[in-house]
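Data follows
____________
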Amino acid sequence: MPDPLSPTPASPSPAPGTSPAASPPAAPGGGASPAPSTPSSAARPDWLDEGYWSETGVNLDALKPVLDEHKALTAAQAERAAAVPADADGYKLELPEGVLPDGAKFEFDEQSQLLQNARKIAHEMGLPQAEFSRLLGLYAQDKIAEEQSLQAAIAQQKTKLGANANARIDAVHTFLDTLGPEKAGALKGMMFTALQVEALEDLVRKASGQGGASLPGGGREPGGKEADPTDEEWAAMTYTQKMEYQRRKTAAGQR
């Protein structure tokens, strides 16, 4: 029977045949036991944008499209690099399909310094053959347009020279050929306009000391106006006769 005067209550005696229960360990400092701790999340790396991070770590759903895009870009760059010639001389002077007007042809000068420089720069920039050909197409189109514009201008000037424009030009060329190929070529290169052709005709006439050669077939229409020669008559005329005919037309104001 416990002693009622004892300050410490007696522990109950274990039942016969049982071991005494173990007492729980005392908390440090006499306080209550701490609650079990949970593992803390890792910190976001400085190089990873906040949009790809969540409380549980890397947000793979947000990061996957970026990785897919990077993979596609890497593959495209590899494909592009494989299409670049090994050196500048490897670029072919080929035009893309359909870049020229129907029936038009264009030939490149393989010795052109411009093309050599273009090949060098294209290789330095890593251009594939297809992209280099596109640039060649622009060059060819510009040259063709330039030639078409020149031919249109020449046709306009020939109209000013009249129906016998080609014959008049050929007559001047024939005379200039007597100067030798080099000098003749230099003067032929000046014949772009009707006025230039007429000026050369005057020079040829003066150099030849031509007088008043007659026009075959009389060359006069009723009323005194000089008739234009037919193609057959013009072909039969001498150079002197052709120049004199032009002189008379000029003097009569019939051009």
